[in-house]
Amino acid sequence: MSPLSSTETPIAEIPGDTLRERIIDDLRTRIGADLLDSLLKPGDDLWVRVSTSAWRQTGVALRSMGFEYFCFLSAIDWMPSPFGKGEDDPTAPPVERDDTVRQGYAGGATRMQLLARVVHPSLHVGVNIKCDVSDSEPVVESWSPIFAGANWHERETHEMFGIGFAGHPDLRNMYLPSEFEGHPLRKDFPLLARMVKPWPGIIDVEPMPGGSDDEEGEAE
Amino acid sequence: MTSTESLIDRKQLAYIASQAADARLNVELETEGMTLNIGPQHPATHGTLRIIAHLDGEQVVWAEPSCGYMHRGYEKLTEVRTYPQVTSLVNRIDWLGSFANEVPFILAAEKLMGIEAPPRAQWIRTILFELSRIANVSLFLGDLGVQLGAVTPVFMAFRDREHVLNLIEAATGGRFHPNFDRIGGLKDDLPEGFIDETRAVMKKLRNFCTEMEDLLFGNEIFQSRTRGIGVIPKDIAMQYGLSGANLRACGVDWDLRRDQSLPMAWDKVDWKVWTHPDGDSFARCWIRLQEVRESTLIVDELLKSIPSGPVMAKVPRIIKVPEGEAWVSTENPLGEMGYYVVSKGDLGPFRTKIRSASFNNISIVPWVLKGVYVPDIITILASLYFILGDIDR
Amino acid sequence: MPKIPGLLKGLGVTLNTIKRTALDGANTVQYPHEKEAPPVRARGVIALHEDNCTSCMLCVRSCPDWCIYIEGHKELAPPRRAGGKPRQVNKLDRFDIDYALCMYCGICVEVCPFDALFWSPEYEYSEPNLADLLHDKVKLGEWMATVPEAPAYEVGAEKKGKK
Amino acid sequence: MSALLAADLPYWVQSLLRVLGGVVAVLLPAGAIVYLFLFKMMSFMQSRLGPMEAGPYGSMQLFAEVGKWLQKEDITPERADRVIFKIAPLVVLASTFLLVAVVPFGPDAWFTNFEAGVFYMLAVSSVSVLGILIAGWSSANKYSLLGGLRAAGQLIAYELPMVLAVIGVIIQAGTMNLQGIVMAQNTGEIFGWNGLGNPYILTQFTGFIIFMIAVQAELTQTPFDMPIAESELVSGYMTEYSGFRFLTFFIAEFATAGVFSFIASVLFLGGWGVPFAWFGWTDIDSVDNWMNVVGPLIMFGKMMLLSFVIMWVRFSYPRFREDQLQRFAWKVLVPISLVNIMVTAILKVAL
Hints:
The complex is a heterotetramer of chains A (220), B (393), C (163) and D (351). Helix content of chain A is 17%, strand content 22%. Chain A is α/β, with parallel strands linked by helices and 220 residues long. In chain A, the strands form two sheets. Chain A has a five-stranded mixed sheet with strand order 1-2-5-4-3. A two-stranded parallel sheet of chain A has the order 6-7. Chain C is α+β, with helices and mostly antiparallel strands. In chain C, the strands form two sheets. In chain C, strands 2-3-5 form a three-stranded antiparallel sheet. A two-stranded antiparallel ribbon of chain C has the order 1-4. Chain C is elongated, with a radius of gyration of 24 Å. With 351 residues, chain D is mainly α. The longest helix of chain D has 35 residues. The two termini of chain D are 39 Å apart. Chains A and B meet through α2, β3 and α3 of A and α2, α9, β6, β7 and β8 of B.
């Protein structure tokens, strides 16, 4: 039993951009050319993209750099949804949708990207790490031996995006029944709630019976 | 890395050794294990969480939470909604502190748009944020009593939380789901009489905290049930991404309200981050109690200095967020709640990763439940404090 | 002063609460007999001022749950000024809100450009049957009577009393 | 009910009166405790009013509840041991009735009055353990099983401090007859002053505290309610019971609380009696007949006082853990009560 206690520390210095630059340099010395790209938004945040093969190594490097706090791990599917928002008029001609895959910060080459964030608990600075996941063989090395908390996040990502994690102890589904087919957070997985019901937003105002097309004063 | 792993290893080795000793005894006594399903419908899970516990007598050999009974797919749903519609959705993630859920999302969108809410809006946001923390955590304090077998605290918690909910409702119109935060500010200004009313309520809440201290925290039975139970070391907590009071109870002095610069009013007042060195169930609960009291003080301070002016910045009528990515997390009642918003310049987000506190907080359960007794499962779960909507999203 | 054991303190708290409840009254309200008045801004139910609605579909489209249904027709209305041409207006045929789906976010009320939708703090409209929660424009119109005046603002607010 | 009547009445009337008296002596305290303490006192502790709709101030609520339970379907789990499952609540309730049989309510108002009353009381109070254990076992439910086992361990552990606490009283009174203990207290004197008699709560205060703690555990009330532990074991051994059988458990719980309070007031608070010196009585035969009417009322008052304490503690405290409870019983209560016995015995011999 230790006594009740509290600490009163002054407001920590808000991490600056020089600190973030140092982090990039430090990481580059540790993983070398596997650091493919980085983006530093001044006064905001830091994005780093590493090669797929160096994913595990990056985790180890970040841990040893003091980024001990595991925030989250997830993925992004960069393909635009072929279904839109489900707000289409079925009577109108189908809308053209832009289906080019455009990656976000720190670039990328594949449709799927892994995204994780770790934080340095005493410097109060975080890093967003991205890595490409190939479509043909979507398997990345698991982070769960480095960050125990990645276990569940990887399970979730596996379930939602269909990305495999080599070395993960137990890639069961977290949310969905085990016989569920498909990966719900992929963009080509339709959101059924928006499919089963017609969009009520289609204008349903009967015109004047044989009336003139005089639109004056309509917007009363 | 090595130190942490060796710690886990040591703990596990010790555990395996004790298990082996038990097993030898069990062979002599011819006992066999039993699998106990706690939940999905169980009074202790307040929601539909299922804990599969393999027991040897009343001791847990291994336990594993099985979630997903309440998975609503919010990350998918945000992709078909516009930014104003998303706030009404993310309200429902941690339904006890709804307003706090809206703030990081709105801040992320504002960050992408490069706008900032006017000072008065920031103040009111912070006040409502703290009010929702009080509403959330005061219920935790009451619920804690129920989990440990004391029936009275929960009613006291509901009694005093009611005042806070009334305040939130008077200001926002919604008791549980305010949906009051807008990109660029707030939907409306405060109604007349809010400030005086809030002061009176904060006094009641501080009184409630004292009552809880006398009724529950000072109680020797409560202490013997929670002290030394479910100890989480600092580095394990970090690895699992525990946040909020759970992390501070391990002695980590980290509060996102203080340790990052957000366009909110926390840095305008003087307050204290509470930590506790023990890392056990008692520490977690105790930190929360102190934080409720601290929150009431923050609210009082903010009410004194609330600036006048507009509550809404100039934003276009139809909100399109420029292309980009943003991560904003805040110190929510349950812990670090963050949104990773990816925008493609559309009316709605392209992808939103919702990092909810309870998901990480509960992922440590298999680790921490090893070797405890059945009653301690309940204590530990209660002290980790999760909300189902926050785990499953 | 010696420390009072926590066990006795706890008993004191409950005894004190008994005393308070007995003397100052309970914190609960005996619901069907007495009712608490919800605050003015409370989002109880959405009321419709039918004459103001132009079936512009803004509310329907902004609804996150797709729970509003509008149908209408065009009609000639008397001219605004004497001697003018009769105007063509949109008349509502159907305005349904499915309260089984509604999540009370209030976006429809906010986006309405013609002040046709209002929040009323009325809350007693539960139904034993889920389907009965689909309320039509007549029912929504009846709630207009319960829409309160907007409250005054707190000191320091920029705007003064508005809807 | 009364020994005075015994001479004049046929045997079957006596038996009938005893049965009726027993039912009243069990159900009346149960009803009073449930209404006053469970419904009203708990509500007031929690800043609410409790049931208000059924009857004035909800006074008829208990009947409404009973009606509700009687209407409910009596479900037996498919894999339960049917016969035992059905008997279990009756066994628990039966122990309550057996207990009340030895409680004296007045000089002549008793059901049975036999010499080893305390011994009998301690013996039959353990019967309920049997009922709880078989209820837990026969439900074919893991929660029930855990609850039943916890109950067995707990009730056996607390039987011992209870017995040891009572031994002090027996030594001081020099009799195991409950009526005799009442006599001894009311005719006793404190240092020659007999204005209060000598209620054993004064001399046996340690014993009283231990006895009340043991009663609390015996009744499985918080802080010793691990066998029920609704946040852990749902409802422990009662999980699978519904309708009438649950009602039986419910009645048994509160009736036993009442009966144990009766017993505690007999052992420590002077029972039905008033200090005999007030009216110049010297022994049981000289007690006026009206005490047969006033005695039960005094008993009822003392019972309510003690059940108030039991319920007050119940609604204020969180619960122990099973191993802490055992440790408390064996390492704290048993040694203290042994010391208490020794001190009592030495003083008894010395004085």
